[in-house]
Amino acid sequence: MLNIKKVSVVQDGNNVCADIVGFDFNAYDKDDIAEVRKYWLQYGVLRFKNAAITDEQHIAFSRHFGEFVIHPKQLQEGGHPVHKEILVIANTMKDGKPTGAMGNSEATWHTDTWFYEKPPAGAILHAVEVPPEGGDTYFLSTYLAYETLPDDLLKAVDGRQIFFQRVYDKTGKLRLGKSVPRSEDFREWEGVVHPLVRTHADTERKSLYLGGTIEGAWIVGMPLNESNELLARLWKHTTEGGPVFVQKWDRGDIMMWDNRCTMHRRDSFDPGFTRIMHRTTTSGERPI
Ligand code: OGA
Ligand code: MN
After folding, report:
1. Does 59 share its domain with 122?
2. Which residues have a Cβ under 8 Å from the Cβ of 34 and sit 6 or more positions away?
3. What is the whole-number distance in angstroms between the Cα of residue 278 and the centre of ligand 2?
4. Which residues line ligand 1 (CB under 6 A)?
5. pTM of the model
6. Which residues keep their CB under 5 angstroms from ion ligand 2?
7. Which atom in ligand 1 lies closest to the alpha carbon of residue 135?
8. What is the chain's mean pLDDT, rounded?
9. Residue 188 backbone class (left: φ over 0; alpha: ψ -120 to 50; beta: rest)
């Protein structure tokens, strides 16, 4: 018999996401995983339509892509009652308390936990229950963002590092375990420094690393007003200029992204609907 590969991909017209076709979560071998890994590195964002896996399958599959990372929200409202590996993103409540992270709110463009020294390499997000409308998730490629920079911006980012404070989250809430800083200048707060242009550990391609917000970010060594101006231009270029893939969820869909070369955001949705997502996160290296 001919050895025909089970797994194949269909890329979207935008060059951002690829659909994995033919992957069977009930029966796969290491060659199938190697195929998925190859496409994950090649495309950055993968989708499995209608996979409808169990949590156990989700965890077992994720394990092939690295060590698990406990997301900070898993220690808070996003913890799963049974599986410590799973982050619950949901707007559900029990006894007056949220039983998932993020509620129904919008999430603006970000890469996950950019304020970590070693931000995660990947995330695998499974739609357990979705609203009839709203809550779409958008993806872009930060490889493309880098590769399409105009010459002056390309020069401006060359060799630069970016500082991110990690005391407050984007909504202005203190992060877990942090206390109100003494200084008014966020550059003196606890934070992390990453290269503004990072080189992917596996593909060795360069991408732009903007984290999750301009506020609380600083291009090290640059006067703050100049840094803000440059960051505003980089954000505009990245989030408004290039191709974006929009995931309109069906229950059972899985999105799997490489957090080292992509950004994502999601729309808010009507709080009258229920949206439950289960996510695993795998560990990454220190950006270089
Ligand atoms: C995430 C995230 C998007 C969504 O899981 O990191 O940003 O669609 N969620 O809920
Ligand atoms: Mn995210």
Report:
1. yes
2. none
3. 12
4. 89, 107, 112, 123, 125, 137, 264, 266, 277, 279
5. 0.95
6. 112
7. 8
8. 94
9. alpha
